[in-house]
Design goal:
- The chain is an alpha+beta fold and 200 residues long.
- The chain has a domain of 111 residues.
- The chain is 22% helix and 32% strand.
- A hairpin with a 5-residue loop joins strand 6 and strand 7.
- It is rod-shaped and about 155 Å long.
- It starts with a strand and ends with a helix.
- InterPro entries: CD8B, Ig-like_dom, Ig-like_dom_sf, Ig-like_fold, Ig_sub, Ig_V-set.
- One of its GO terms (biological process) is regulation of immune response.
- Its main location: membrane.
- It is a single-pass type I membrane protein.
- Keywords: Adaptive immunity, Disulfide bond, Glycoprotein, Immunity, Immunoglobulin domain, Membrane, Signal, Transmembrane, Transmembrane helix.
Length: 200
């Protein structure tokens, strides 16, 4: 079978879209590759590219009427094509996965006697799927605690500390001395005035 491959990305995006780009599946399970054709076509082909053998292997062809044609040594129990939610969907299901199913799968359509390939889906089949990476979340930050300084309790024996009553007592004593001196001078002035009045 001679295949003329047209790799122009612009034409490919107009005619069809293929997802996902990569699949990692476990042995004996099944997987599905999605293909959506955006224009009228004569049928959808599915091919697998084998990197070891460096060649395309024809898997299955499905025409718009729903008739399927399988490639050489390709069984219905292994590959099946069915429509999705859209009438233009032609999804490939691969059953009973084995290591021999590794490869890159292409959804293709014929346009002007050429086969236009989709973006391709690389399938890897393993016995045990790798564990998802552990979350590396940073530990929650603790809120800073404010340092609260407790005030020294007031001495119950005295209403005020020495820092208060010593200056207060000093000021009171000074005030009393000033008042005493003023009172003494006032008394002397009053006595002089009284003597002058009586002398006259």
């Amino acid at each position: 079978l001679c295949i003329s491959v047209f790799f122009a990305g612009f034409c490919r995006s107009i005619l069809l879209s293929q997802t996902p780009g990569h699949i990692l599946a476990q042995t004996n399970n099944k997987t599905e590759i999605f293909c959506r054709v955006k224009k009228d076509h004569s049928g959808v082909y599915w091919y697998r590219w084998n990197e070891e053998r460096q060649h395309f292997q024809f898997l299955v062809f499905l025409n718009p009427l729903g008739k399927t044609t399988y490639g050489t040594n390709i069984g219905r129990e292994k590959f099946s094509v069915h429509g999705g939610s859209s009438q233009n969907s032609y999804n490939l299901q691969i059953h009973h996965l084995q290591a021999s199913d590794n490869g890159t799968y292409y959804c293709t359509v014929s346009e002007s006697s050429e086969l236009i390939l989709g973006s391709g889906t690389r399938l890897g089949v393993v016995d045990v799927l790798p564990l998802p990476p552990k979350s590396t979340r940073a530990p929650p930050s603790k809120k800073p605690t404010r340092c609260i300084t407790k005030s020294r309790p007031v001495d119950k024996k005295g209403g005020c500390s020495a820092f208060v009553w010593v200056p207060l007592a000093t000021c009171t004593l000074t005030l009393l001395l000033c008042l005493a001196a003023i009172g003494h001078r006032f008394h002397r002035l009053r006595r002089r005035l009284w003597l002058r009045v009586h002398r006259q």
